[in-house]
Amino acid sequence: MAFIRDVVCRRVTERALTAIALGLIAVAGCSCLAQGPLSGQQIASAEGSSHTLGARMYAAAHDATALGSAPAPADASAPPDDQLHLAFAPYLWFVGMHGYVGALGRNAGVKASPGDILSHLDIGLLGTLEARKGPVVVPIDIMWLALSDDKGLPENEAGVESISFRAGEFILTPKVGYQIVNTEKWKVDSLVGLRYWHLGERFHFNPVLYNGFTTSQNWVDAVAGARIERVLSPKASIVILGDAGGGQAALDYQVAGLLNFKVKKNLSLFGGWRYFDVDYRNNSNLFLYNMTVSGVGLGAVFAFK
Q1: Which one of 16, 39, 68 terminates a domain?
Q2: What pLDDT score was predicted for residue 107?
Q3: Torsion angle (degrees, nearest 10) of CA 175, 177, 181, 186
Q4: Residue 165: CB atoms within 10 Å
Q5: pLDDT, tens digit, 9 for 90 and up, residues 86-118
Q6: Helix 50-68 with 2-31: angle, nearest 10 deg
Q7: Which residues, including other chains, have CB under 8 Å from residue 22's CB and lie 6 or more apart?
Q8: Are 98 and 110 in contact (CB under 8 A)?
C-alpha cells in the first residue's frame, strides 16, 4: 500500500509541475506578441531552461511597461527668431478734416471733406517702414502732402485779380518698441518715439503788386503707445494701434483699427479707419493749429526679408 501511495504522489507531482511550466510558457508567449510569435525551438528552449524563460518573462514585462507609458513630449518651444525683418507699407488715406487755424491773432474755422482735399491735392507720400529683430521693433511713419488753390477775386481798390495759395504738411514719426506679448493668437508691441511736424504756407498775388509771403511752423512732440494684433487665422488678423503725447503741442494723439489679409508670403493688404488730433499754439506769433483729421485708409505691406 505504501508503495502504491508513493507512485501516485510522484505522478501527481510531475503532472502539476508540467502544468505550471506550460502555464508560464503561455503567459510569456502572450506577453511577447509585440516581438512576434515564438518558434518551436524557442518554446522547447523555454521548457528546458528556466533561465531563458525568466529572461523572456522579464523582457515581456519590460516591453509591456514601455507600451503603457506616455511618450516623452517634444520640446514645443521654437527657437527665437533673431533674423532682421524689413517691411514697407505704402498707403492711401482718404481724410476729412475740421478744426481751427490762425496766425497773428486771426483765427478761422476749417471744415473739408475727403473730396475737397483730393480736389486740391498736388502730390502725397504716405508710408511706414519697419525693421524688426527678435522682440525689438523700429517703425517709422511718414506723411507728406502738398495742396494748392487759385481763387479769383472781385474788383477791388488794390487791383489784385487772384491769389494763389500753396500749403504743405510733413509729419515724421520714428519710434522704437519691444514686443511684450507673443503668443499664437496675440501680439503686443509697446512703443515710444517722437513726432515731428512741419506746416508751410505760401501766398502769391496776381498781378504782382506785393511780394507775397511765406510762413511755416515746426514742432516736435514725444509720444508713447502700443500696437495690438489679434490673429484670426493664418491669413487674417485685426490690428489696433495708437499713441498719445505732447511737448510743444498741448495734445497730439492718434488711433487706428485695421484688418490685415495675407495674399502671399511677402505681400499683405490692409484697410481700416484712422483718427488723428493735434492742438498746437505758438504764442510768440499767435499761430494756431487745432485740427482733427480722420478717414478710411487702404494699403499694402511688402516684406523684404
Answers
A1: 68
A2: 78
A3: 20
A4: 14
A5: 999 999 999 999 998 887 677 788 888 999 888
A6: 40
A7: none
A8: yes
Sole residue written with cell 494723439: 253
CA distance 161 to 166: 17
- Using the Cα atoms of residue 25, residue 29, residue 35 and residue 37 in order, give the sign of their dihedral: positive
Residues 214 and 88 in one domain: yes
Cα dihedral 176, 144, 210, 108 sign: negative
If one counts the domains in the chain, the total is 2
Q: What is the 3-state secondary structure (H, E, C) of the chain?
A: CHHHHHHHHHHHHHHHHHHHHHHHHHHHHHHCHHHCCCCHHHHHHHHHCHHHHHHHHHHHHHHHHHHHCCCCCCCCCCCCCCCEEEEEEEEEEEEEEEEEEEECCEEEEEEECHHHHHHCEEEEEEEEEEEEECCEEEEEEEEEEEEEEEEECCCCCCCCCEEEEEEEEEEEEEEEEEEEEECCCEEEEEEEEEEEEEEEEEEEEECCCCCCEEEEEEEEEEEEEEEEEEECCCCEEEEEEEEEEEECCCEEEEEEEEEEEEEECCEEEEEEEEEEEEEEEECCCCEEEEEEEEEEEEEEEEECC
Same domain, 21 and 89: no
Residue count (the chain): 305
Segment 223-278, tens digit of pLDDT:
999 999 999 999 999 999 999 999 999 999 999 999 999 999 999 999 999 999 99
pLDDT at site 202: 78
Are residues 6 and 131 part of one domain? no
